[in-house]
Amino acid sequence: MADIDKAEKPKTLKDKLWNVAKTFLKIAVTGVLLYYIFHKIDIAKIKTLLHEANLVWIFAALICFFISTLVSSWRLLTFIRSIDLHLDWRFNLRLYLLGMFYNLFLPGGIGGDGYKIWLLNKRYKIPAKKVFWVLLFDRLSGFWAIGLITVVLVIFLPQMGVHVAIPGSIFVVGSIVYYFVAHKFFKEYTRNFFTGHAKAIGVQALQVCTILLVMLSLHHDEKFAPYLFAFLTSSLAAVVPFTFGGLGMREYIFKYTIAEFHMNQELAVFLSLSFYVISAIVSLLGVYYVFNTSKLEEGLPPMDEQISDENRA
After folding, report:
1. Which of the two residues, 295 and 32, has the higher pLDDT score?
2. pLDDT score, position 60
3. Higher pLDDT, 241 or 286
4. CA atoms within a 13 Å half-sphere pointing along the CA-CB vector of 219
5. What is the rounded distance in angstroms from the CA atom of residue 248 to the CA atom of residue 146?
6. Highest mean pLDDT among 5-19, 158-172, 260-274
7. Measured between alpha carbons, how far is 284 from 288 in angstroms, rounded to an integer?
8. What pLDDT was estimated at residue 266?
9. Is 93 left (phi over 0), alpha (psi -120 to 50) or beta?
10. Which of 87, 175, 176, 221 has the greatest CB tally within 10 Å of its CB?
11. How far apart are CA 129 and CA 166, in angstroms?
12. 171 CB-near residues (< 8 Å, 6+ apart)
């Protein structure tokens, strides 16, 4: 019960002021990064890329990202069920879309993960700590999948001068340690460990395909691997706390990773911004539940049918 009381404790004036300060700081950092990036690239070339883009391929990229969102929601549901909380998949998807909207458009405010913790704690009386660890392992599975695909891409990047056996060995050892620690100290959250991580591979693969489709829309016929490698590296920026949903930091990392390969930096920025816009469009689906909160939990069965007695403790 201590976790529940803690989760429902009202925010103090100091907490509210800190949240406002964080919001301004994130916007400021984002603004500085975007100014620096666009000051260093040729804006006219980016406009040319925009005009040349084939909208059919762009639409295909949008659909691909939406499918990745569905799989990502499915992955989260897998981890949620490890604590014996059997959510309806439709409610989980609606909650996931709402969380995406909060994460992208309300930085420093409620936050998608924070809202999930609050709502699941409030409705199902699950300790906030349990929900937090579920969400953390969901994120970690994504990091792991990014690492795996990045290692595979190294095979197609001989200019890095690194034999694939080196990052491959590091990844394998790291994966073993990761699983050992998770299974040893967080056993409850690893009941569906392998299933969740398999779905994480699907999520990241679909997001890589999203970038590929955007590149095809631009009739790109040169090397793909450096851009995909830069995209995966920049994907980690989405969780950096001092950026507006990853905007700014993602473009910065994308641009300068590509610079190391002596590739088209304007294309790199265009790809990164395109991915942000696509994710923003999909995230806007969640705004429906901001104004129609009753629809979020519509059709849910009684709480007793979705949670075990053990998890109410």
Report:
1. 295
2. 96
3. 286
4. 7
5. 20
6. 158-172
7. 8
8. 77
9. alpha
10. 87
11. 37
12. 147, 148, 151
Distance, in Å, from the CA atom of 90 to the CA atom of 299, rounded to the nearest integer, reads 9
Q: What is the DSSP string of the chain?
A: -HHHHHHTPPPPHHHHHHHHHHHHHHHHHHHHHHHHHHHHS-HHHHHHHHHH--HHHHHHHHHHHHHHHHHHHHHHHHHHGGGTB---HHHHHHHHHHHHHHHHH-TTSS-HHHHHHHHHHHHH---HHHHHHHHHHHHHHHHHHHHHHHHHHHTT-GGG---THHHHHHHHHHHHHHHHHHHHH-GGGGTTHHHHHHHHHHHHHHHHHHHHHHHHHTT--S--HHHHHHHHHHHGGGG-TTSBTTBTHHHHHHHHHHHHTT--HHHHHHHHHHHHHHHHHHHGGGHHHHH-HHHHTTTPPPGGGTB-HHHH-
Dihedral of the alpha carbons of 46, 154, 148, 30, in degrees to the nearest 10: -30
Which tokens is 22 given?
Answer: 């964080």
Q: For residue range 203-238, what is the model confidence (pLDDT) as tens digits?
A: 999 999 999 999 999 888 778 888 898 888 888 766
Does residue 255 carry a pLDDT above 90?
no
Q: What are phi and psi of 307, to 5 degrees?
A: -145, 140
The token pair at 57 is 């391929």
- Length of the chain counted residue by residue: 313
C-alpha to C-alpha distance for 141 and 61, rounded to whole angstroms: 23
What's this model's pTM, rounded to 2 decimal places?
Answer: 0.79
Q: Is 7 a residue whose pLDDT tops 50?
A: no
Tokens 């929601």 sit on residue: 73
